[in-house]
Structure formats: structure tokens, C-alpha cells
Amino acid sequence: MSFATDVWLKGGDAGRDLAAVDWDQTPLGDPETWPASLRSAIRILLTSKFSMWMAWGPELTFFCNDAYRRDTLANKYPWALGRPASEVWAEIWPDIGPRIDHVLRTGEATWDENLLLFLERSGYVEETYHTFSYSPLADDDGDIVGMLCVVKEDTAQVIAKRRMGTLRDLGARPSGLDEAEAIRAACQRLAGDPQSLPFTLVYVYDHLGRQAHLAGTSGIEPGHRLAPIVIGLDEPRPVWPVTSALAGETTLADGLRERFGDLPTGAWQDPPDQAFIVPLRQPTQTLPYGFLVATINPYRKGDDAFEGFVSLLAAQLAAIITDARAFEFERQRAETLAQIDQAKTDFFTNVSHEFRTPLTLLLGPTEELLENAADPVTNGQRARLEVIQRNALRMLKLVNNLLDFSRLESGAAVARFDPVDLARYTAELASMFESAAARAGLALTIDCQPLPSPVYVDQEHWAKVVLNLVSNALKFTFSGGIAVRMRADEGQVLLTVSDSGTGIPAHELPRLFERFHRVRGAAGRTNEGSGVGLALVAQITRMHGGTVDVESNPGVGTTFFVRVPFGHAHLPSEQVGAPGELVDPSQQAQSFVSEAMRWVDRVPDPSSPVDDLRPADAPKVLVVDDNDDMREYTAGLLRPTYDVTTAVDGIDALAKVAESTPDLIVTDVMMPYLDGFGLLARLHSEPATTGIPVIMLSARAGEDGVVEGLEAGADDYLIKPFSARELLARVAVNLELDRVRRVRTTLERSQDLLDQAQRLAKVGSWEIDLQRDQLRGSPEFYRILEITQELVEQHGFRDLLGELVHPDDLDGVIRVLDQARSDAVTRGVARIRTPSGQEKVLETRVETGTDEDGHDMLRGSVQDVTEQRRLEKSLAESLAKEEAAAREHAIAEYLQRSLLPERNYDLERLQVATYYRAGVEGTEVGGDWYDVFELGGGRVALVVGDVMGRGVRAASVMGQMRSAVRTLGKLDLSPGEVVEQLDAFVADLEGYQMVTCVYAVFDSIEQTMAYANAGHVPPIVRLPRGDTVWLHATAPPLGAGATAGVTTRQLPLEPDTRVVFYTDGLVEERGQDLDAGIRALEQELLARADSPIESIPEQLVRSLRPGGPDDDVALLVSQVSGAPFHAAVSHRLMPGRNAIADTRRLVVDQLRAWGLDEVTVEDVALTTHELVANALVHGDPPVDLRLVHTGSQLLVEVHDRSTDRPRRRNADTGEERGRGLHVVASLATDWGARVGSGHKTVWASHVLTPMGR
Amino acid sequence: MVLTLNTERRGDAVVVRIEGDFDLHSCGKVRTEVEGLLDGGGDEVYLDLTEVGFLDSSGLGTLVGLQKRANRVHARLVLCALSPQLDKIIDITHLRDSFTILPGVPELPPAPSDSDHSDDSGDSEASDADASPA
Question: pTM, whole model, 2 decimals?
């Protein structure tokens, strides 16, 4: 077999191609002539799966196998076969030539690992890595004539490893950087791999997506023409394809060298020519953050692997941006929160500060008054001035505390830390409380051991720590003692303040040092306090680099531990001072100590001399309050009228009650030892004290407090601050109610006594033998009935019964007898007339039984209860009378309060004067009334009415009528409708009632009066010209019969028109025609045309009823005043979708033209808008708008053709609709709707502040 | 003033700047736009109300509706930069706690958008909610 067929054919493609080489053209000549050693080497080469090449002979002719061809040779195959090796690997000959030379010369093999070689096998210079060994090949004579190379190409692994490293570096990113910093840091890492990435650029799109901003680079200077700082998305020829990146596309830019010439080269000789532009995708979002430009190593192709690498880079960068933005968002949130906190502190500082000035101005003059020897105040004045001074000082202390606290918190307070003998200073501070503790009966132990070195503290602040803790201990300790100790402890100073006080519940401990936190329900000497003290202690301790802790056992005591480090290393050096004098603590301690003295030193003030002025039998009132000044103030108010005693807390109050039962107790709610609720419970638990009326006073505002108080059984409840008048009124009412209650109790008690007497009354007994139908009675029985045994036997008892018993009661008696049973007593009461003609009331009791012979029997008794019944009846009557009196009293009071409203009406363009007087006979109250109330929208309702009849009944109906009219009026019903509704209302009242009434509505804008008159005497209108009009009844009296379809009449009212509304008491006189009376009134009215309206009612009554009215008189005179309107505009809304906006613009322009302030303009524009929108959406066109400026108010009226009354409701938070009228109601001073036939007007009025006019 | 909307993506968030009068007539436009954003998976939608000169009860009702929608799809709706007038109406109607309200428009991370839609025609329907690039 020839060499060719033997060797070449086993060599696969390479063998075949080697066979094709024209070997005669090479120094090796015909293969058949080749030495055996060459042949054997070739055989090894061709049959190996390892990548190998070899060179042989003088020119080092090149051979290789299939593996080498595949892995390394690429395009050089098959050209390379049979060529000189130096020609095949010309580009790397400088690298490998010396190695081959070495092998040939020395016969030693070489070994190279991952050697970088730039091969040109694929049409370009390529970065490659190879691990290879050259070994010598000897010819048949043993001379080295060639070399064999076994090679493994590592390019892929080396590059992959390098890229992995870069990606890993990028993944390890520091946190806490902002976006710009994070991107710059990432680019620094990219710069660490200039082989993979000669240079890179990171661009980020701006908020608006209009530009891409350069955020980071590696290997290139920002601002380079390939690295513009900003690329506009609208640039016609951007350097980088910004828009396709925005669209999320990855693109490959080519021909960089040609386009841009000189470029940075990274790790290489030559600059890159290509770049990938990869978007930096946002997670969950379509739009990318920006894009990465990754230039490609010029010695590598932009292949799939590289693209994969670059997209991983882009993903890492995007993640970095995401993190940075999330971090930034969090940071901003934290900053916002910090700002809010700062704002709060600023607020407290400002408020506290603002308080100090007025307090100082209060204190100065007070002190001046107290100390002015030249013009001394009286003792009474002194006492009151001292109250002012004491309380202003207390408030000042609270404010100072708050101010200190907020200063500390805001860091505004600059402390000065001086080295101080802290044990001595602390002992001095604590000792200030010695006398207070002694008076409270508490032991004050001060044990402050000398410390090894001075301690750096701010003296003023430290004093606050000690003073607050000790005064706090004093406040909550009632027995035992307080100990203040100081010693060195583990390199720190330890101050402990312990007490044997009431202790703090465990669940309160965590919040104890919070600002404004107060332990609830803690028993202390006083409830005074602001909840700032302990927070201040904590804050100051922190400022000194220390800590504060607390341990507490309820009922056992509390210990506070304050630890502060020695030395000053922990303090800001610029605030550390030098040793100096100790500040005298007494000044600062004074306010704490004097306050503590007040708590422990409670002695009720001696009664004041006003005691002598009040009547001897004045009701006794006990005033209970723990605050001295408050107690004395309350007591002082009551002393002129009542016999006042005082108590300092609930326990003291119980002692005072035991000494002498008061008629009424006024008590504070929050008190130490036993609070108001506790006191109330104790009073109620004792029969002797349960009836004492109790009025509670509390600073807890709001309905809840009231409910709590009344539920606890308080008779009344007053919220602080209350006026003197209010207190006196409540005390009087409660005493009065109590008196009524007591009368009733007395009556009830006498009823009990009566029952006993009844039992002792005489009883007659009887029995009936049913078989024989015979009755036998006891002597008492016969005496009561005034009959004899003989009479019974003569007439038979049944007949006799018929004669004696009152006919109405006879059936009852027989029923009692028939229903008699053996197991129970049946009883009945019957009236009888005795043969002597006397009426008696007898109670009969019956039971059945058998006699000794076994005959069925009826047994019973009769008892004369005539006297008892009479007593009972009179008792019931007096009881009813008493109750009626109480009710009448209450109603009279009600009338005083409600019937005679204030005399000064501040009405739009209407003056009103009123008069009411009960008839001269009248201790009894009548049923006349008048009323005036505003309806809003420049309209006023005027009412006068008369309930027929007198007394409580009439008065109570009148009260109901008054509120019914007000209610109906406020619904904005027309006068006719009001009258119709009132008629229905009166018809529903119990019993037959008749009421006359005039209801009129004055519209100041329209200058009209609409009215309806239900059977009332006609109001008289006096026109400016002197004519008069009588407003005759338009409907029958209310309750007289079905009133339907009452018409509303309307008349214009010019300025200066007067209208007189009155009741018949003014014009009715016995034996005189009513009309004559009205005409007399008319004449009097005309005669007084020039009198001021205020004097008219009085004058009319005096001249018409010179002897005083017999009957009630209610009188109401009104006069239209002539003040002109400021202005008014009307506007019809044109249909179309711009109607609303146009209207709003018109409104705003008009309001501005009227010179209203912007807030009012905005408010009115919004109310107008809502009303107009409502009318357009829910109403019927056309919609008209009217704006009226009356000088003092701004009125919006929206008119449409529907008659549906709009309803206001504020939708639930989840509902989308239904807020319009709520908004109107909230912004406007008043609003309402008037519905007429076929149209309605919805209006809103805004009262203008003087500024807004 | 005619209402215009300007929708802009910023990071995970979308900021909708509303300009003009937010009332009976224009509230539908806001509703369409913002509902689209909420339903389209916008996790956070900021309504920049700086330039809303006027808000009526219908506008407010729309905000309530959008808030409910946001709650339903677990998205976040934030009202930003309310004028005193808006503040007042929200207080009046006791709706403050129903909304997330920021005093100003937060600095959100910048994000690109070459397609922010600015709809100035006023009467046309809202601009397409998803501002993804074409």
C-alpha cells in the first residue's frame, strides 16, 4: 500500500487535502520518498483527535489535522497545507518563531498556557488564547528536523471568564448611592475591563422623555464627540440611536472608525469599530430608563455571545438604577417625615412663645397692683389678684416647660456643660422640697455620695431633671417617703429618685417619657400637669449622653434611674465649659416647690363675710374641687345666695356630707383620692345621701363627657369654662327640681302610713251557708252596715244587698261572691248607702270553705275604707297640683327664655320692635306668641299667633306651635303651605284646640311680603303715603276644620312701610265691637308715624289699654328700612356645554368687580357652580341665576322650572355623587330652596366679613 | 379654562398633570385617562393638580371613583399639589382620609418618554393611556 493510500486516507478531510498538495514544489519532495520518521509523525498527527500541527524540514513545512483545522485554522485552510510555517503564522511568528527555534535547537519541549495571540484567520485580526506545547520531531537519523504542536484553543473560556468577572463586579454594588453616583460607580467597574469594553457610555432619559443625558462613561471622556452630554430625541442625526433604544430595541452601530476617526482604544492598539446600543429596561415598564453603548473589542466580532454579555450588563445597570431610585424615593419620604416633625416642633415653639408675652403682660400689672404701697388694694381685691397671679405663674411654668422641650428637641437650645460637683448640687436641689415633704408627712431621704470627679452638666437643665423627678414623686406619694440618691456606678453617675407612691401600671411604662403622655387614672395629689415633665427629663438626659429608666410596682412605688457619663468626651467640645460657681438653685426651684406646697397644703379658706347677707334658711351647697382657685371661685359665686361649704376632694366631701347634709353638691370630676364619679357612686350607695342633687363640673368638653356624667347619675353637668350666670341658673333649677321631688316623696311616704292605718281599721266578718243561703255576721259587720241579724233574716241577704249597694257596684259585688274560691281571697270595693242615708266605701274579701257539718260556705269580711279613700283622693289631687305647679314653673321659665327672644334683631333691611305682656290677672300664662326668624337669602319670617284658652295647656300648645312654625318656616315652605301644615298639626293635638296665626315672609330683595292668615286679627300695613291695608284672614282658624288650598297673598313693601302684627288682647274689649278696636289701633298707628319704631309697641299698648291689658298681648311692629342694595345681576344660562364655565367666569368677574376678596370669590363661585350644575342636571330649563350684593351679604339664587326639592346629604366616603349641596351648605352661611307652582329657587347666602365687602 | 391632561411615565409611576377646570364637563376625560392607567397596570399614578384652578363636586366624585378603582386593582393613586380651594373642598366633604395627598409633586426618577401625550384640543377624548413608544 502506498503512503498516500495508507496515511492520507486515514486522515479525514485533512488527509485528503494533504494528499492533494503538490509536494514536489516543497523541499520535502515526493511523499513516497519521505523518511519513516516523518511518515510516522504524520500518521500520529492525522489519526489524533487532539488539535495538532507539525512542521518538518528546512522550511518547516506545515501539516495539521482535522481538529486543528476546525478549532484554529479557519480560513487559512487548506491554503496553509504544505506552506512554510513562518508563512502560515506570519502574524504571530514574532511570538511563536522563537519558541520553535528553541525546540529545534535544544530538543526541549515548550509549554504555554492561555497565550494571547492575534490571529488573522477570519479576515480580521482576532484576539485568541491558546494553550500549547511544541515538541521536537527527529528524522530517521535522530536529528531534530521538525516540531509537533499539540494545541488547545481557550479563547472562548478566557473571554467568558473575563466577562463573568465584569458582570460579577457590577453585581456587587454598594448601597446608599443616589442614581448618578450609582451609575458612575458602575462605569468605574466597566472601566476595569477595557479588553471586553474599550469604552462604554450610559445614557438616561429625562423626565419628559425629550432628551438622553450622559450619566456615566468608561474609557472615554464625557463630552467627547462620541459622548455628548445631552442627546435630544428630536435630533435629526443623533450620535447614538436614541429613539430606537427608547423603543426597546438593541441596535449595532457600525463603521465607527470611519465615521469618527480617532477613538479611544481601551486595552487595544486599535480603536473599536462597532458598538451595541442596548436599552436599560425598567422592570414592569415598557419604557427603558436609558441605554448602554458598549463598544466592541476590535479583535472580537459582535457575535451572539457578546450581545448576550452586553444585555446582561444592561440588565445589571437597569437594576442599579431601579435600586437607586427606590432608595431615593425612600430617602425623600424620610426627609418629608423629618420636615413634618420639624414643623411640629416649630409650631410648639411658636405657640409657647406667643403665650409668654400676654402672660408677662398679665403678671406685670398684677404684681404692680399687689405691691403698690401708695395705693393699696382692699383685702378682697388682693385675694382675687393673687388668684390671677398664681394661675398666670402656673401657666407660665407650663409654657416654659413646653418651650424648653421644643427647644431641646429642635436642637435650638445650646447647652453649656460645666464641670460640677453634681452630688452637692443635686442634694441642694432635692433639699428644696424638705418642707413640702414634711408638711405632707413624707420622709425625704437625700443620700448623694461624693463623686470621684466633677460631672459635666448644664446646671439649669440638670436642675430641671431633679426638680421634675422629685416634685413628681411628691405628687404621687401619700405615705412613706421619697429618696434621692446619687453614686458612681460603672463609670457613670447614677441618680435614683424613688418613692413609695401609687406606682405606674406596667402597660403605661413604655410611653411614660413621651411628650404629652399622662398616666391615666393615676391617683395623685392633683391632676394638674401637662405631661411634659418626664419627656423633658428624658430629653435633657439624652442631651447629656445619658439614659433614663423607670421601675414601678403599682401600690409599692416607683424608681427613676438617670445615668450620665463622667468626663466630656461624649459632649460637643465647643459646649464644654470650665469649672465655675454653682448656680443658686433656689430661684429655679421656687416655682416647683411653691406648686408642691399648694398640693400638700390644702386648707379650705375661711368663709367670706358675704355669708351674713343671705337668708338664714338658704339652701346648703357643697363645692368640691381640688384646685384651690377654682374651688374658691365657684364657692364665691354661690355664697351670696347659698350656705356654701367646700371640700378639696371626694373623701373630704363625704366627710362634709356626714357632718351636715347639703341640699346640693357641685363637684369637679378630675380629683385625687376620690374623683367626681367615685363621689357620686358613694353618695348613691347610701340611702341618706342618694337623693342629694349633684352637678358635675368638668373640663372635658364634648357630648361624651356629658353622657358619661349623666349616666353616672349626675343631675346636671357643666363644662368648664362656664359663666357665673350659667352656674347660678343650674344650681337654682336643680334645687327647685329637688324640692318638687321631695314634696312628692313626702306625699308618697304619707301614703304608706295611710296603708298602715287602713290595716288597723275595724273589720267586720260574715259567713254565708250556701245550702241554706243564710248570712251570719259579726257585731262589727252589723254596725258597719247599720243593719241587724233580724233585718237579714226578714229580707234575705240578697235582697238586702240590692238595697244597700250602690246600683253601679252591685254587679261587682255579686261577681266577687260568685267567683269566690277556696284557695285564694277575692276582694272588691263597693259603695253602699246605709239605712241612715250615709254613703260608705267598703272593701270586701271573700273565700270559700266548709262548716263543721261539711256544708259549703262563703266566708268574708267587710271593712269601712271611706275615710281612707277620701284621704287618698285628696292626696292624689294635691300630688297632681304639685306636679302641675312644677310644670307650670318650668313652662313659665321656658317662656321667659324662648318666647321673648332678644330685642335686637339684626335683619336685612327690616327693623322690628316687639312686645309681650301677660294679662293683669295673669299669674296664669296665656297662649299668645310672636316670633321672628331669618330664613336666609335675605328673607325674614314674622309670626304672631294665639292659642285659645289659658293656663298650662294653652301655653304648652303655644310652645309646640312656635317650634312647629319655626320648623315649617325653615323648610322654606310658602306661607300658605305653612298654614296648611299647621292646621294638620293642630288637628293632631290632643283635645279640641283652636289657634289663630299669621305667618308672613318679608323678602328684602324682592321688597315684598308674602303672608297667610289663619283666622287671626288682621295685621295692619301702614304705607309710606299714609294709607293702610288690613291683612284679612285667608283661611279659617287652625284646628277649626280641614284647611286646604290656603292661598299665599303677596304685597309689595316699599321702604318706610310699617306692619303691625298683634293679638286680640290689644284690641278686644268686653261689650265693644272688635272692628272698632282694630280701627282704634289703626288711628293710633297713623298718629305715631313719626315716632321711632322702638317706641311704637309700648305707646300702642299704653294708649289702647290704659289700665293694662286684661288678656295676654303679643305685638310685633316691623318697618322696611331704605338702605339701597349694593348691586344685583341676573343671567339666563344658555344651553350648551360651556354654560357652566361661562357662568362661572361671569360670576367671578362680577364678584371681583364688586371688590370681594379672593376667598369669597372662590367660595361663591363654587356654590354658584354647584347650584347651577344641579339645576342643569336635575332641573328643568330655563335656568336663571341671580347674584345680589346687599352690602352685608352676597346672595346666589338659581331658578328653574322643576319642583323637586333638592336634598342635602354628604355622601359616604366611597360614593362618587351626592356632595354638591353638602359643599354648598358648608361654604355658604345659609342655603335653602323655595318651591312654587311650576318653579323653584335654590339659594345660598354668604355673609360678608367687613374685609370681604 | 378647558381641561388638558399630560401623562408622563416616571419610573414605575405615572404622573398625570391636570390643567384647567376639573368639573362636571371635564371629569369624564380625567376618568377615562386615569382609569386606563390604573387598569393598564400603572402601579402608582400621581395626579398633579397644581394647575387645577377649579374643582367641583363632580370632579371630587370622580376622584373618589378613581380612588376606589385604584384600591380594587391594588394600585396607588396620589393627589399632588392641591390648591387651597381644593384643600377646602376636600375638608368640607370629609374626604381627606380617603385619599393619599402630597403637598407637592414628588421628584420621581426621570424616565424617558418620547411620546408624552399632550392633549390640547380640550373636547376630544383623553389621550391614550399607555404611552409606550410606537
Answer: 0.36
